[in-house]
């Protein structure tokens, strides 16, 4: 299994996370670097948040984008109007590209959903030329995602299965300080740098926040989908109470932190 992220439909993912990965793409590209004429690989492209941002950020010669999910691949292909972009289904741990064929390989919000994350980093290094760049970013689920922690902490207070969800969610691969940097070094990358990227997630209402999770999208939605009707009603009410925090339903804003790491191929 090359991904622990579950997706039902592209629209649900966009509301859950796609709109935020679009915001994160710009600072991530600035951190990873980019230059005209380069060939760039987007590993775990999803619906194309980073892919299409790359196309706008520089005059690249080629952008290859892969994802494990056929739902994501189909949607990214549907959206693509740029002949430089080639999108296909593939496994991050077994990239279907020759050695050294790219100037950069980037992965935005992907590695924490890859059980063999180190192997994926090794594959990214393999397909990048000497002197090229490998870069990745993942959410800090433990300490940098207060909007999502609001939900997992709420369900953890309600049941043992909720506590198990929190344990899984907060300690996925690559999320602890220095963890991704160590992995990059272990995979032979040089001049490895780790930093934090911050965006804000702005919700218009509780429904704007909760609807994709309630529909079963992502790891939190996968948990909600397992609940029986009484427990589901209890969770819905408790999370709504946490979101509203004693005020009327309406807009809420949460700062969110991602760890980002960059290294040079020797």
From TrEMBL:
Cite the Methyltransferase type domain residue spans from the record: 41-135
Q: Which UniProt keywords apply?
A: Methyltransferase, Transferase
- Which Gene3D superfamilies would you find in this protein's record? Vaccinia Virus protein VP39 (3.40.50.150)
The protein's matches in InterPro entries, at most eight in alphabetical order, are given as:
Methyltransf_11 (IPR013216), SAM-dependent_MTases_sf (IPR029063)
A Gene Ontology molecular-function term?
A: S-adenosylmethionine-dependent methyltransferase activity
Q: Does the keyword Repeat apply?
A: no
Q: Decide whether keyword tRNA-binding is in the record.
A: no
Quote the protein name from its UniProt record.
Answer: SAM-dependent methyltransferase protein
Q: Name one Pfam family in it.
A: Methyltransf_11
Annotated GO biological processes are: methylation
